[in-house]
Design goal:
Layout: H1 17-31, H2 34-47, H3 49-73, H4 97-101, H5 105-126, H6 128-135, H7 140-173, H8 186-211, H9 214-235, H10 238-244, H11 249-256, H12 268-292
GO molecular function, one term: ABC-type transporter activity
Protein name: ABC-2 family transporter protein
Keywords: Membrane, Transmembrane, Transmembrane helix
Amino acid sequence: MATTVVLDRPVPNRPARTGGLRDARDVTRLRVTAWRVIASEWVKFRSLRSTVVTIAIALVVIIGFGALAAGVVSGDVTRPTGPGGGGGGGGAFATNPTAVSLAGMTLAQIIVGILGVLAITGEYSSGMIRATLAAVPRRLPVLWAKVLVIGVSTFVIAVPASFGAFTLGQAILGTGHNTTLSDPGVLRAVLGSAVYLTAIALLGLGLGALLRHTAGAIGALFGLLLVAPGLLPLVLPKSWGDSIVPYLPSNAGESFSSVVPKAGMLSAGGGALVLVAWLVVLLGVSAWLLRRRDA
């Protein structure tokens, strides 16, 4: 026999599910702030094993290679004829005090560039980028947060590394062969080397965001920094080479990370502006594509 159940109170009306979901989306959107995106990118950056390993290698290369170079050429160091105690900073090796101490910058630029590449291509290879962009639908804050995290982190590491390499190198060279930060142009070269490494890390980030492929971005970085400066003067007419080569990122950086830039290079201020232009164009194109391509 069927039993009929009579309720003493009416069943309350429940809001439609679509309205609830819409409210949830609104709440999520309100909670996505610039500082939270930056904090998220910082957590991802420092928690990667590749970050720790890459930074450790960069420090060893910057300081270790500078000390090794100073030990090799100790007693056979000459001062350039220009102002200051040395030229060719930012990785250019020559037998003058400043350049010897900063000999590790040539290899270090590739290492920090790879650090920038991995900061974004690692997310594409693992698929994590989909979750990141789903949490931040506007997308661009993710890229700008990565720029801030990579830029600040690299600069904070590169400054003491550059000064440490310089100090240790000059100590190994010894009195009579060394130079000091008070000499004209030396402080600019040492600090400029740290600024240059920071710019190269951001250049790697831009290439990674543009190509979305680790090997391709690292190959492009290597070619742009090391291959092009030596190859273009050989394959281009001299007039073309003289007009193009100084505007490559590595040569532009050398202009302000050297006490005495090489002949034909840009001025320190001009080189800094050219390097900034490279970053603006590359990151600008990457941002434009990020808004229009699927993750």
